[in-house]
Amino acid sequence: MQNNKRAAVIILSVFVGLIFGLVIASNLSLTQNGFAGNDSNTAINSVAKATVEPVEQINSDIESTSRAFVEIAKRVTPAVVSITSEKMVKVKHPFSNFMQKDDFFKRFFRSPEGGQEYKQRGLGSGVIVSPDGYILTNYHVIKDADEINVMIDRKSFNAKVVGTDPATDIAVIKIDTQNLTSISIGNSDKIEVGEWVLAIGSPFDLRLQHTVTSGIISAKGRTLNLSGELTYQDFIQTDAAINPGNSGGALVNVRGELIGINSAIYAGNGGGNIGIGFAVPVNLAKNVMDDLIKHGEVVRGYLGVFINTVDAELSEALKIDDNEGAVVTQVVEGTPAAKAGLEKYDVIVDVDGKKISDSQTLTNIIASYKPDDVVKLNVIRDGKEKSISVKLERRPGDDNNVSQSSTPSEESVLDKLGLTTRNLTSELAERYGYEDLKGVIITDVKSGSLAAEKGMRHGDLIVEVDRHRVKNVRDVESITNDLSPESIVLFQVKRGGNNHFIAMKVPK
Q1: Phi-psi region of 114 (alpha: psi -120 to 50; beta: other; left: phi over 0)
Q2: Torsion sign over Cα 233, 239, 148, 84
Q3: I need a surface site. Which of 175, 328, 449, 453 has the fewest CB within 10 A?
Q4: Positions of E strands within 112-195
């Protein structure tokens, strides 16, 4: 019995051994013939190769992306400039009024009448949009500046203001030179969230000009409470680093096309970049620029309503399905909206097929049209859809947005005389002491010019031209540009509270 058990164990051991041997042989055969071919190290090499190839591919992709950024920077940076500005600012001593009224303090603590003047300097960026010297920038970069200079290849060029539009924070300036490298303008309507972009400008200091940063488009259609002057807002948000001094610089796509003008940031405690920057879409900026160059002003369509954005509660109260649209809170009497029959509580949901998501969208779309354009509004009134056609008119107050020296398509009489002028804003009026007056401020008198010879000065206020009262630059130009060469033009100017008459012969 014991011998039988021993025999069974031996047979079982042999059987297991045979099976184990077959398995090993089979694995060896697969390794040599089925998996690795004739080389026993090929399996290891193949695994290594499979691991290395993706890494090499990734490295190649990174290098290609890096090279693309390099090429974009090379192409675009020559078209991005640094802009410096200067203006005289008057600062009153905190006790100046008290000191001037008291005889004792007036005798021993004299302070300049009206306050102490000093020169305030600013730095921003701009984008060359044409080889003959037109530059697109932000309004706030050159706002109320007495002198504007553009730095290109370490050379400084004096710039003239072509026109400004505070409502969009866009300005156009021009330098007198040719054959400049200009930027290619893209289509901001086609951009998408997640796209790579580069921001180029002069942050903080002239020594940092042509700084290039990268990021993506973080969002579109942003509206912000950045300034009381801003009316038309449709910002591109980006995490490309934008800092003070970048304002007016370029935001470009991977094709090197301008898609935005860098304008604002949400700043951290130190006032620097925290990855939330904003740019004016180039389509909006270009429309403004074209108007300023062609007409010297921006002319927008006007509807004549006060509006609110529809929220969930309003949507329910007004019996509409979506929390979108702009609800009319007031129709201004005598305006296009009133003439077309728009009513309070109407909800405007689209304009010519363009969907209205909120009140800002409606404001922007109407502003994109011109006076006399006819637009079709789809509105919801008492829960029912209604179509209304409206013929737009010129927006009231557009004349007040003009701030220019002349339309530089041809040399104006003011240019020939050597005068650079600006509309008298409230800030300029306070600075020069013209608070209760209307007219046109002289911001520069060209050295050696006829105006300089006749004694016109920076800070003089033109109140009459050829005995006609003038309120803005357009008034002055409409009078002077109609004069024939060699005719006499008579200016009445205010200076230090006194009237001066200055007569000059119009140059040929």
Answers
A1: left
A2: positive
A3: 453
A4: 116-128, 134-138, 147-152, 155-165, 170-175, 184-185
**Contact status, residue 336 vs residue 375, Cβ threshold 8 Å:** no
What six digits make up the tokens of 148? 């504007």
Confidence grade of residue 57 (pLDDT, cut at 50, 70, 90): low
Which among 211, 163, 221 is positioned nearest to 188, based on CA atoms? 221
Q: Which two tokens stand for residue 252?
A: 């470009």
Inform me whether the pLDDT recorded for 29 exceeds 50.
no
Question: Do residues 83 and 148 make contact, with C-beta atoms less than 8 angstroms apart?
Answer: yes
> Any idea which residues carry the catalytic annotation?
140, 169, 247
Determine the pLDDT at residue 132.
92
Under the banding of pLDDT at 50, 70 and 90, the label for residue 9 is very low
pLDDT at 163 over 80: yes
Q: Which two tokens stand for residue 292?
A: 């300023």
User: Which residue shows structure tokens 């390099």?
Assistant: 70
Q: Distance between CA atoms of 32 and 37, rounded to whole angstroms? A: 5
* Residue whose pair of structure tokens reads 């004069």 in the numeric block: 483
Contact 304, 343 (CB under 8 A): no
Cα 458 vs. chain centroid, distance in angstroms?
A: 30
C-alpha to C-alpha distance for 457 and 448, rounded to whole angstroms: 12
**Three-state SS string across 410-428, please?**
CCCHHHHHCEEEEECCHHH
Average pLDDT, integer, range 420-432: 78
Where does 343-406 have alpha helices with state H? Answer: 359-367
Give the pair of three-digit tokens for residue 204.
């903080």
CA distance 141 to 85: 8
- Enter the pTM of the model: 0.62
Mean of pLDDT values over 191-215: 88
| Residue 186 backbone dihedrals phi, psi, to 5 degrees | -95, -160
Q: Please, are residues 298 and 292 in contact by the beta-carbon 8 Å criterion?
A: yes
What is the rounded distance in angstroms from the CA atom of residue 186 to the CA atom of residue 255?
9
Distance CA 85, CA 148 (A): 5
DSSP symbols for 190-213: G--TT-EEEEEE--SSGGGTTEEE
Nearest alpha-carbon partner for 76 in 258, 283, 264, 263 = 258
Residue that is written with structure tokens 């693309």 in the block: 68
Rounded mean pLDDT, 287-299: 87
Could you give the domains of the chain? 2-73 (no CATH), 75-296 (2.40.10.120), 301-394 (2.30.42.10), 405-505 (2.30.42.10)
